[in-house]
Design a protein that fits this description.
562 residues; alpha/beta; 8-stranded parallel sheet; 5-stranded antiparallel sheet; binds 6-O-alpha-D-glucopyranosyl-D-fructose; binds calcium ion
Length: 562
Amino acid sequence: MAKPDQIPYIRRMKNQWWKESVIYQIYPRSFKDSNGDGVGDLNGIIQKVPYLSNLGIDILWLSPIYQSPNDDNGYDISDYYRIMTEFGDMAQFDELLALLHQHKIRLVMDLVVNHTSDEHQWFQQARQSKDNPFHDYYIWQEALQGQLPNNWKSFFSGPAWEWNEATQEYYLHLFTRRQADLNWENPAVRQEVYKMMRFWLDKGIDGFRMDVISLISKDLSFADKDWQAVAGDPGAAYANGPRVHEFLQEMHREVLQHYDIMTIGEGPGIGLEHANDYVGADRHELNMVFHFGHMFIDFSEEGRFIPMKWSRRDFFRIFEEWDQALGERGWNSLYLGNHDFPRMLSRWGNDTTYRKESAKLLATLLFTLRGTPGIYQGDEIGMTNTPFQKIEDFRDVDTLNHYRDWVAAGKDPETFVRTAAWVGRDHARTPVLWDASPNGGFTEGEPWIMANPNYPEINVEAAEADPDSILHYYRKLIRYRKEHKTLVYGETEVLRDAADTAIYAFRRWDKQAEFLTVLNFGNDPISSDLAFPAGAPALTNYPNISQTNLLSPWEARVYQIR
Ligand code: ISL
Ligand code: CA
């Protein structure tokens, strides 16, 4: 009998709503403040539902809105059944959900169950004594000859272990010391997670984005990690543990399969070779993963704060490889930015001379490749990195922790600030810019993090008024992809242009139609040796094309060939 990975038709033509959808991610703290306290909230999102609906998105993914002390902006949950006080209350959540559904937008929630906040009741109990019934909800190790149990380190700098006086042990935290890792080996923990998932699903939500789900199964030998072997990447060190698939299949059996929903697992450490084990249609685990192939492209062995040069060629190769790996058996997710990275336009495009052109080109890549595309809030108006000047401008615990360690090691603080002002996560977390009023109309008070000072030019109101805006181009692309299912389900082939590596071109086809996308990722015009069809492209980011084979800087074209 053929092995499942030799049966391409398993995926083929299995049409699903979540394959045809466009996702929009909201980071609630920074989206829209409705009451002047400087913090975005549920009412703010409610006000903007018509905007989301006009954009044409199908799925809203909300970053965590649960009760949290905000050590990591909601990714440290102290109560899974309550709404963060600053964001609103359950009545407002119910109102938002109903309103979204009225507008035919589905709601996907963040599921953060690799860890909880240290303020969660379970942890408050667990840390009291070794025979507390909740003790085994977390992961404990004794000191090793008075030292740390092993060399495991946290994603956010420093060791992954924190001492607990009362029980004279260390607990594991792969992220901050206030994010204690749950013990998935304990069946009671898993049942609590499933119960909580059912609570939200029974309210009518449409799925989950699962935070660092690749990390939930730990190596119980607690052996030292070979940091060199994993090139310093904690994701690679901790991901894909021995029981992760067993846990996800159990979750599928007990919860997921009973609902018509969509699941995306966030997967640091999920490489090409692992992805289908999570998303293969025959696996009964998840629908998609967020892989980090391109997102970690500039991380060095020391992490994001000592970035490396990256090449366009590698960037293109990653997109091609993932398409091939997932195309037949699983399903890809497509994204260029989220709340953990600098602005996609500043990172992958040209945010000065060719801001509009390159933003449109990046969108063209997202919406014409095979997979489910996602937009991060503000990218649809071409928001750029914020000019942070000093360490006080930053809010992210990742940046602040690394700064503390950097300075403690006697290194130059200026260098760190300059780098963080380029690679830090806070760029994605500055307020969405709605209009030209102070702070981009995000708040009537003081925003919790500075607004990008370019709000007088870059804001939603201005984009609505300009027929040539990035925003209108997004709308056009979204509509186009909806009208042409070939762009969703069709096959993919990357086309090589011998002349220059700045061009990424591919065709998409099925029985009904065929499309060609050509993208010039460069600041210079290029004469291409690709075979262009006669006639005008269906979509482009330049008003006129003088010479068919000549691509302007950051020019993007989509042709319908048949
Ligand atoms: O941004 C990173 C580190 O600098 C990534 O490695 C990131 O931490 C990783 O992808 C996991 O991200 C998710 O879980 C974290 C949270 O801080 C992120 O915001 C979230 O997206 C812990 O819950
Ligand atoms: Ca508020």
